[in-house]
Amino acid sequence: MYTSPPKTASQAFALLAFVLLSGCEGTPIREETAARRQLAEIGGSYRPDRRIPALPALTPDSPAAEFLRFALLKHPQVEAAYDDWRAAVEAITPARSLPDPQLTAQPNITSGNSLAIMPGLMFDFMTRGKLAAMGREAAAASDVAYREYAAAVMRTAAEARKASIELAYVDEALRLREDSLRAADQSLALAGADYSTGSGPATLEAQVRILNSAGEQRANLAMLRDRRTAARVRFKSALGLGPDDPDPPWPSFPLQATHLPPQEELWGAAERVNPGLAGMRAMVDMAVAGVDVARTSRTPDFSVGAMFDSMARPVPVRPSASVTLPIWRDKIAAVIRGAEAKRDAAVARLDAEQINLAAEIAQMLFMVRESDRMIEYLDGVALPNLERSAASSEAAYQSGLGGAGMIPEARLMALGMRLERADLLRRRETSVADLLLILAAVAPPGAPLLAGTAAPPP
Fold first, then answer.
1. pLDDT single digits (tens) 391-430
2. Which of 141, 192, 293, 294 has its CA 20 to 30 A from that of 415?
3. Which of 194, 198, 174 is nearest to 409 (CA)?
4. For the domain bounded by 29-444, which CATH number is listed?
């Protein structure tokens, strides 16, 4: 014969469980509080109220900092890294919290074929040291995610800088190529006039040579216009805009050389703030915390609870308790050794990153200095000599000792030198952009979005 349990007892137990379990909160660890504070500070400017803030109103005359801020606020690469960091910070709380309590229900069939449901409540406990170690490991993982977010910010800023350098170079090269074409056309016209009238030393071979030069200038102009189209697409993508988005205003950045401090200062700054090194250090901290968690596997975990018989009067309470027995020494030792191996691997990767970083800085500085020496040669020797040659050609023409076609030819050679100089400056600034990426110094000083990304709190 089946008899249902009294509803009043079940309802009373459910009410008691709700009162005991609703609104419970754990105690945050120090690392969790620091991580949430840092997230709130950066998120307050990057994603206030979880929304994209007002983007800068760009114009062709906007400074580079405005275009850079637009890219960092808009680009999905930065947003994805920020959301991953935010998820890692939220993962600290579950890691340092106790497991959820369990509501249990055990049937009790009596000799009279009556059925009673015995509800209960079970709690799992870990030692405070184990929970703290698991929380620190999760906090270290959130720091790794933060470093990845900072690196994404730097990569996006560096790509925006490189795209603007390419755009500035193409605009300058187009201007010089157009001047070269005009000089070639002028030289061809003067050489043709001298040849037809016999008033100068021009020859048919000279006309053919100048004609070939003019054709080459036209072909180069067409290629540069195609390159400008590609450069604009790259710049638009660097701003975080898709193909279907309206084109941004194209900036009018001048192609200028960026001043760099001495090599010793660069290396010191790289050791302090390089995103790659910072990420490796964060991974070492996470591996060290993982060793602490592995060592806590030697301590037992506890479960306590109570059940009561809803059919009996008075209602009896049956307490229960259990404890894990970590007796498998080889298993515990293997867990600890595995965690220590991960820690040693993280330390070795950090050492390797420092070695590679020194080589990268040396290579980039060489490329910068190589460009600087060639630019110095062009500015100090080649271009002044061409200017003197042009002046000599003009004087020879005025005295009747030379043809008029030599004057635009000298100008054409000077324009070619200036084009080579612009290309050297483009390569130099691209190397500088890579170098500043290593130094986490691509962003403009004082940008609210980047507050704390280069220099983390202690």
1. 776 666 666 665 555 666 777 788 888 899 999 999 999 9
2. 192
3. 194
4. 1.20.1600.10
